[in-house]
Amino acid sequence: MKIIVVGGGAAGMMAAATASENKNNEVILIEKNEKLGKKLFITGKGRCNLTNACDSEGFFNNVITNPKFLYSAFNDFDNNSVMDFFDKHGLRLKTERGARVFPMSDHSSDVIKTLEKVIKENGVGIRLNTRAETVIVKEGQVKGILTKTGEKMPADRVILALGGVSYPGCGASDDAFRIAENLDIKVSKEEPALVPLVIREDICKRLQGLSLKNVSAELVYNNKSVYHGFGEMLFTHYGVSGPLILSASSYIKNGMYEGDLKLHIDTKSALTEKQLDDRVLRDFSENLNRKFSNSLNALLPSKLIPVIIELSKIDPEKKVNEITREERNKFVKLLKDIVLTVEGNRGFLEAIVTRGGINVKEINPSTMESKKIKGLFFAGEMIDVDALTGGFNLQIAWSTGHLAGESATGS
Description:
It contains 13 helices and 23 strands. The chain is α+β, with helices and mostly antiparallel strands. The chain folds into two domains: 250 residues, FAD/NAD(P)-binding domain (3-Layer(bba) Sandwich), CATH 3.50.50; 151 residues, no CATH class.
């Protein structure tokens, strides 16, 4: 049987590795870039958070879009299977905070090398700098692919693992969705996910470069809470970023930016309002004769102090012993709830993943095969599934890629 895998990213390489385990199959992997795993190379800031060592409930709790669709794929090849796969092929792994799994070397290139080694040992033919134009279909059955240069490549099975449109610098494009629509396969609108947010207020620009740890954030749309989380965030010249914000962004649908979308930041989330008030009182008692502007160094990062003072509307020259109880209460409430207006996001250029893609109703979840076209399979980010940060999106790629590769062989 001849199988063509289109796309040399995480899902495509896993699909090719799995399909080629059956030595009776001829497997060809085509990739439009000059090398495999180009986006994989930059994931996890070059360290590659390749999965998460949580239990199955933890995995599905972190999938935002269409988690039920992934039941079969995850059960077929779960996070333990992924770790066993890489360990079996010589890649040593380690687990860090949040159960995030990385290669021991901290080099994403080692993940790519491991996959390349497997597919080459299995005899997979690799065609780089080869871009698919469309899938050749006759009477509802896959017959091969047509490349951009007009070359017809016959095949009994085709696995599409073309990725999303995030990070176009890595070669990402709309090929997956263009090809799908040409085949009359429904595509859910693509949107950026896990993406930095643009904030209206100028305080972010003034706080540019400041990272806050152990803060909580809540997104409120038209007075309704849509997300609440805890972690680390970063102020930028355009707004906010960091793991906490990226997670929050995955709960925002594009239409929300046109409504009343607020980001509430609790800078002291480990303390109740009463505990924080006690802390502020203690700090004030130690600085009674100092100016308000000089009394906050033990409480806040230096870069945050002038901004907080301005927002508090307390005269920075005022002596601490002259601050009223009402002013102190407002100050405490401010530290517990800085409110920012979300105007948009940084788009696909900075989005980690793509929300949207091949409508899951078009795919048999038990096999990853198209319900319309026999012999056509899908894997990875081009499917309308996405998850939070922490290795979950790569787990989706491994699981769907493995199931597609397995199903394409008929095994």
